Amino acid sequence: MEKVEATATVADFDPDSGSIPATKVEITVSCRNLLDRDTFSKSDPSETEVIKNTLNPDFVRKYILDYFFEEKQNLRFDVYDIDSKSPDLGKHDFLGQVYCTLGEIVGSPASRLEKPLGGIPGKTCGTIILSAEELGNCRFQKYFSVFYFASSVLLGMCDQWHLIFTKCNSWFPPFTPLPLRHGKEGQRCFYYLPRAQRSVLMCILLELIVFNYQELVNLLEPAFFSFSQVSLLSFSVESEHTFLDYIKGGTQIHFTVAIDFTASNGNPSQSTSLHYMNPYQMNAYAMALKAVGEIIQDYDSDKMFPALGFGAKLPPDGRVSHEFPLNGNVENPYCNGMEGILEAYHQSLKLVQLYGPTNFAPVVNHVARYAAAVEDGSQYFILLIITDGVISDMAQTKEAIVNAAKLPMSIIIVGVGQAEFDAMVELDGDDVRISSRGKLAERDIVQFVPFRDYMDRTGNHVLSMARLAKDVLAEIPDQLISYMKSRAIKPNPVPPPYSTCNNPETTPL
Fold first, then answer.
1. Is residue 346's pLDDT more than 80?
2. Which residue range forms the structural domain that includes residue 84?
3. Residue 332 pLDDT > 70
4. Which of 55, 30, 57 is nearest to 41 (CA)?
5. Which of 52, 306, 438, 453 is the most buried (most CB within 10 A)?
6. Are residues 116 and 154 in the same domain?
7. Among residues 92, 117, 138, which one ends one of the domains?
8. Helix/strand/coil (H, E, C) string of 286-315?
């Protein structure tokens, strides 16, 4: 029997094995207006089953994939009209093919991507519709319950202690922090106090991770409360929203790049310069830009990105600027996709004079102004700064970062070349949160890395770029979630699907 089969190839590029995926997603495949290759009947589309006489199949089979925001996960879907039982696809009619990335699917409105099928010259092959759904077992609700043992001493202080534990449930004022004995999800986990402290007041924090209310009831059976001194103070429910919840709800990620045009990079016309344009390979600036940008662009619907330069003298008067558009258009600094940014970067090198110093604060404040205008969770901004030297305006940059930490914004700094970047590490708040004028940053929003640490020893630039992107982008989902939580912003409901394809019910067969 004739049938149509959709096959998928996953070409994940995982530069370092052992990665833990952010989550798993389930991909659903549909096609509309497929090419009819049968003479006397319409194709019978099928994957795991035959769907008779339709060119608009909705396949039942799902593809479950590990999802990594920080990696470019390439996918290919091929559609065939199966006319026999032969396992050799070369013996069947090819109906079309599409390439995309997993990021393109999840980053599309409502995580639903529509793309035209191609692969047959001169033919319109129809459309493939790819929908992503985050698997529910990667999401959970936490029920926090506080229990206590109490002697006759301090019984009147229970309300006071309850307030303390509600606000800070990982330690026991005024006692010293105690280790948590972990159990598996859905099991009980306890803090224990030394025996000497039990005579005054013993408190136990119980954290239950369950998936539904019935599980909670089962765990709180009367048999569990075998000690008469144990009382339940309270429990609360906290929904855990994921990065993909926000993306699917319509949160757009905006990407801005800022490139260092200071003289320490060397004359661009000489091969020793970090800005030198080798006709056979990209320089470090272009590689860093492409590595990060090609992943982030999947989450920006219009693919238009502001591209800035700093540290150069501009024509015609030779004024020094630390915030100029690479395309030369102050009113509209946006470039079309990664190729547009690279083209504007190449053209700028021919027009401006490399100068200095290396100031970051202007470009940080530039993006912060846009982020400050949309603090409702609908947009999140990522600034990529690529530089070769030691920062000159450290105090001003720290102040700019501390202010930006209150906004929906993250900053990635990539150091290229062989300079010492020790001072730059100070901006990365992984170990010590950055501060300015005695004011601590609300969140850690900066990730700094030197590109040389990711260069492949064999000279494989694709591998180098993948390693760089994986490291600098890994923190972005958590940084976005931390902002949303700090403002109590919940994901928007998923918008209803909208199809530009013909309605399959009205499409003539």
1. yes
2. 3-138
3. yes
4. 55
5. 306
6. no
7. 138
8. HHHHHHHHHHHHHHCCCCEEEEEEECEEEC
Domain count of the fold of the chain: 3
pLDDT of 213 > 50? The answer is no
Query: Domain boundary at 138, 166, 186, which?
Result: 138
pLDDT, mean of residues 380-406 = 95
Provide long-range contacts, Cβ within 8 A and 24+ apart, for 205-208. Answer: 205/144, 205/146, 205/147, 205/165, 205/169, 206/144, 206/145, 206/146, 206/147, 207/142, 207/143, 207/144, 207/145, 207/169, 208/142, 208/143, 208/144, 208/145
- Comparing 127-131, 135-139, 346-350, the range with the smallest average pLDDT is 135-139
pLDDT of residue 479: 95
Amino acid at 428: D
Q: What CATH number has the domain bearing residue 404?
A: 3.40.50.410
Per DSSP, the residues of 184-236 read -TTS--EE---HHHHTTEEEEEEEEEESSHHHHHHHT-GGG--STT-EEEEEE
Q: Is residue 116 part of a domain?
A: yes
pLDDT at 160 exceeding the cut of 50: no
